Amino acid sequence: MKKTIKELLQTAPESQSVEVQGWVKTNRDSGSLSFIEVTDGSCLAGIQVIAESELENYATDVKHLSTGSSVHISGLLVKSPTKGQDVEVRAEKITLLGTADPETYPLQKKRHSFEFLRSITHLRSRTNALGAVVRVRSELSCTIHRFFKERGFFQVHTPVITTSDCEGAGEMFTVTSLEPGKFAKDDPFAGDFFGRRAGLTVSGQLQAEIYALSHGRVYTFGPTFRAENSNTSRHLAEFWMLEPEMAFCDLDCNAAVAEDLIRDLAAGVLARCADDLDLFNRFVSKGLVRKLETVRDTSFVKMTYSEAVDELLRAEEKFEFPVEWGIDLQAEHERFLCEKLAGRPVIVTGYPKEIKPFYMRMDDNGKTVAAMDVLVPGIGELVGGSQREERLELLTDRMEQAGLDLDEYRWYLDLRRFGSVPHSGFGLGFERLVQFVTGMANIRDVIPFPRTPGSAQC
Hints:
Strand content: 25-35%
Order of helices and strands: HEEEEEHHEEEEHEEHHHEHHEEEHHEHEE
Low-confidence stretches: none
Number of domains: 2
Distance between the termini: 29 Å
CATH superfamily of the largest domain: Bira Bifunctional Protein, Domain 2
Shape: elongated
Number of helices: 12
CATH class of the largest domain: Alpha Beta
Number of strands: 18
Structural class: alpha+beta
CATH topology of the largest domain: BirA Bifunctional Protein, domain 2
Radius of gyration: 26 Å
Largest sheet: 8 strands, mixed
Helix content: 25-40%
Mean pLDDT: 95
Oligomer: single chain
């Protein structure tokens, strides 16, 4: 394959024949020369191409190249006299591959609002900010896989279609092949494709537990779905979740893995996405780089839920949602704890059992469960996890209290009947992670194709 523009920009500035393929960002024509900036998405910067009027198609094509046009350029890579770049290309041949009519092409050389860019999902990745999001997102994904590989985890592909509602909130999308009006009255899904009701997964956790209890350390990383009618800047109907599960690992072990992961992710993007982070730091979220450096270099603060509630009650802050023991902490509470109280990420443990799912291990006090959330500045909750309830009788009681059909979860209870061990895990919302790292305010701008109530483009 030919070198990317990123690779060319890192090449020693000496005359050598190169080929550039990409899209025109700008073209400035002086009559006898054209200064063309070309990008291929491999990095934030484009490469400058100098085209002289002696080129065969200069008058017909080159001087008229417009933003968005695609080109194939052959020429010499030489040292650039211009500040801000080490090399440039002296064009010997320019082939116009595809035109972009400037009258109708919606992306011109100006800043566009993120709201406008959401209306052209198929083109927005060509902009500086959204293009940088793609690269950062890719780097975070690679770092995740590298992190777990180096620690002896196995990746498990859990199903997208499931019959188990992990969170028990009834927010699953139903999957059916039946035509409207073809559902039976007594058993609506008996004649359906799977012979029973099935839905899109809200979490791969329960299935990941199966493999944690045979392979020790596993993780699943894939799309999840919530049929929650929340049209906000924090919610998506389809999003990606990272969910590690670890046998012989208690809550403290679980929290330590989560902290190590987040610090490793911050270090990874700081080291390998410096130019993109600088863009976000200057134009999207002032102080972003310093925030990530703090995460990379500083241990997280740890406190119990009860201690967190006491701190919130003592605070002089005026909260929209009142604070009392037993509430589910809101984003404003979480952000106060990590932004104003601690000035760094906070791990909160020991939540009331009433506000947490059935699978979390009951503490000895009978009031709280061995849960933990990792709160980060700018976001609030980034990670939610727990030690899982490995005791059959206590798990059965919690499931009955939650109104779950034990027959539907017989396989899950079998994991406690046959060789049960202490184990734990957590879920990290990947889009929230990308938001945290880029400083982007709306979660719809950190996923390539956002699915939200009333909206599913492409």
